[in-house]
Design brief:
Length: about 210
């Protein structure tokens, strides 16, 4: 990521004192509520300052623009997802078990996003900004790497290049399928995710000729 990209989506400064940390958290909490209600595109910095009950200067003290707020919220959720994925796959002992865990992760992702409009709003917000989209892809790749490490342990005979390509691809496609499912009627969403799980079981570990 370029220096310019980091400057626009990174923090201007990190809060260190207790009062600053509390103000920073107030801003992010207010942003989460606005995003849950209206989405990222409709959020305005002035509106955010009013909702957080802080001066507009305090918002810009930490965040150069709206994308930096989305990144801060996204980073929190991405860290949670990566930690949960690492914990789930740490003790995998077979390919069958790994497939079962992938199915469990799909269900967890789906219900987390369907029941939390802030998560969904932030996630969708990363799709409309090139720097945030790159950040989302990097997160998806880190999740894929966790899964790939588990596969290496239980099936070292599988081709490394093939499995890296597949795990990266499937990690991104899982995200896309969940976003589609969350935006769909619930019965259809469950059916689509069921079909996607069958595709994963049929294709992920198939040997290439």
């Amino acid at each position: 990521m370029s220096v310019d990209s980091v400057d626009r989506i990174g923090l201007r400064r990190k809060p260190k004192q207790e009062r600053s940390i509390q103000r920073f958290d107030l801003i992010l909490s207010a942003a989460a509520e606005i995003i849950a209600e209206k989405g990222v595109s409709a959020m305005r910095m002035t509106e955010l300052a009013v909702a957080a009950k802080v001066p507009i200067g305090s918002v810009y003290q930490y965040f150069p623009e709206k994308a930096a707020i989305v990144k801060a919220l996204f980073d929190r959720h991405a860290s949670e997802v990566q930690a949960k994925t690492a914990k789930m796959f740490a003790g995998v002992q077979s390919l069958e078990e790994s497939l079962t865990l992938i199915e469990g992760m799909i269900d967890w992702y789906y219900h987390a996003y369907r029941n939390n409009p802030t998560y969904l709003g932030v996630w969708m917000g990363t799709e409309t900004d090139q720097d945030l989209l790159r950040l989302n892809i990097e997160h998806s790749n880190r999740v894929a790497d966790i899964f790939l490490d588990a596969v290496r342990r239980v099936a070292p005979e599988l081709d490394e290049i093939d499995m890296q390509a597949r795990t990266y691809l499937f990690s991104h496609l899982i995200g896309a399928s969940i976003r589609l499912a969350v935006k769909s009627e619930e019965a259809l969403a469950e059916r689509m995710l069921g079909e996607w799980k069958r595709v994963i079981r049929a294709c992920l570990f198939v040997e290439l000729s």
